[in-house]
């Protein structure tokens, strides 16, 4: 069996970038957005957040940017958990499964955009965090067993 877990790290990075690219494209095509400039994307984000009346496009833009930021906030922890699992020589099937589950939670998180499914989005986030913590715990146990 091939170890695909390390490939999941750049895949996780891509999953964090996709919502940003979507938001950027939306900001260029929507008539409801203040003038987007790529030279100051964070200032544009701030302008959208402080609009008195937010259209559907503005809300979608803000949700997409939040999903992107959330992906980057968990990326380092995910990468570290994958490295820890590989250093601890966890079974390849375990590494691949946990990497796949994490990526699946990211896809679910990104695609649950409406307020009616906000709880599902939170569960997806918790699932992703849980996979990383579980990998760390399994790695610690495996490394402890090697020391005996």
Uncertain runs: none
User: What helical percentage do the residues reach?
Assistant: over 70%
Number of strands: 0
Give the H and E element order: HHHHH
| Mean residue pLDDT | 92
Secondary-structure content class = mainly alpha
Q: How many helical elements?
A: 5
Description:
With 148 residues, the protein is mainly alpha-helical. Helix content is 76%, strand content 0%. It has five helices and no strands. It is elongated, with a radius of gyration of 18 Å. It starts with 7 loop residues before the first helix and ends with a helix. The mean pLDDT is 92.
Task: Summarize this entry quickly.
The model has no long low-confidence stretch (mean pLDDT 92). It contains five helices and no strands. With 148 residues, it is mainly alpha-helical.
List the topology elements.
Blueprint: H1 8-29, H2 41-49, H3 56-87, H4 92-111, H5 118-147
Helix pairs in contact: 1-3, 1-4, 3-4, 3-5, 4-5
